[in-house]
Amino acid sequence: MIDNVIVVVLDALRADRVKSDDGRDLTPYLDELASDSVFFSQAYSTTTATDPAVTSLQTGQHPLSHGVRNHGTHVTSEEKAAVEAVESAPEVFSRNGFATSKIGRPLGRWHKRGFDEYPNVSSTHWHRRAFEKRMSKLLYNVHPSIGDTISGVYNKIFESEETDYAEPEEAADEIVETLEGDDRAYSFVHWMDTHTPYSAPKGYVEECLDRYEYGDSRSLEAVASEYPEESITANSLRSGGVVYEGSEPWIETESDPGTGLIDARYDAAVRYSDAKLGALVSELRNRGLYDTTMIVALSDHGESLGEHGIYYEHHGLYECTVRIPLLIHVPGQQPTEVNELVSIMDVLPTMYDYAGIDDAPPTDGQSLRPVIEDGEAVNRTEILAGEANAQRRRAILTDNWKYIRALDDGTCRYCDLQHAAREELYNLEEDPGENRNVVEENPDIATDLSARMENRVEELTQNRSESDDDITYDDEEEMMDRLEALGYR
What we know:
Blueprint: E1 4-10, H1 28-34, E2 38-44, H2 50-59, H3 63-66, H4 77-84, H5 89-95, E3 99-104, H6 124-142, H7 144-157, H8 159-162, H9 168-177, E4 185-191, H10 202-211, H11 220-224, H12 232-237, H13 259-286, E5 293-298, E6 304-305, E7 311-313, H14 319-322, E8 323-329, E9 336-338, E10 342-343, H15 347-355, H16 369-374, E11 383-387, E12 393-397, E13 401-406, E14 423-427, H17 443-461, H18 476-485
Parallel strand pairs: 1-4, 1-5, 2-9, 2-10, 3-4
Antiparallel strand pairs: 2-8, 5-8, 6-7, 11-12, 12-13, 13-14
Helix pairs in contact: 1-13, 6-7, 6-18, 9-13, 10-13
């Protein structure tokens, strides 16, 4: 019997970092849990930004259905009104007798509906951090050394606050304590370590630099020079920017801030997150909760580490950003690996199915219980994904093909340039890295996928609630400060 459900979101974790075959043992604990779970190797998100992706996870609906397509300050009043009409996971679990808790990153606003326990979103640290970001960026434009000075002073004053990392066991205790004392509990955990600025204790970074090769490292300033001077991306790569942040210990060393160091910091954040997950599983076992707890581990989207000229961001509807790791541990079920297309929208109906909840609102996903228990086929022929926060593009993919189309002139708001042609087509079987756009050689395939895309868009849009309500949230200002401190504009 399933008494507890835990969802662990490792924000911006790339699928290729889990169960990797490139010799980098970055996720030993995730891999161990996968060996006792059902691992989905072809899982996809609906989008590349956290607000709409987590909303898809918590509603089982596509952004075109639940309404939230943008992120942060770009979420419109119409989007807020639409999502307010959709009942989410914590509300449904609470209504069915589950104690509900949120651990880790608070997203606030509509995301906190239905939780009995929710992290405090008000923090002077985030106000101060956002102010420092604005000031250092402004003064950097006056003269780089002035911006560097502001950022450096901030980091020296608040260094202990910024680098006080919790031990993995502490993170595990916080989660498990939410399960004890209640007959049934739903806990939603959101860890941000693998999101920029890629946070991990210094020792984890040094270990990655020692163990792995990060060849062809380029200076961050050289990469920044490839973007327009005032672009969000260029500023994030320079001193005071969210990507550069945390690199100070390696200035004037062999790893002086360059792409190799940032890649190592990302991998270190993966290892740190993995250690926290390992501690969580160990603590569940120690307290006798592992055999009655369903565990879902996944990411909301991936991360670009230079692919297609996109550095340390999650835009572009490529495999590195829309394909996600996903494993589901159901006590008593045989472990296996499923290599069929599944969606982040399938997670919620699966949890409802195992929790015995039969009064949930409809979703755009499907329960994976028949797949997990009986090995049945998923029977999904296509995945529809889209993005609106940095670029306005839409993609549809099948087992073999991915078709991407720009919905406007194709200019990226973050990078102030066009990353690709208006139409893209990739043969994923022959070109898994999506290095060769073959749309001109395959017009019939592109036309077919474009038509299928439009049909699916029409189906999903019909499900969206429309309202003229003016929705406001008490925690909106605090959430925007947090997002700005993470580099969002």
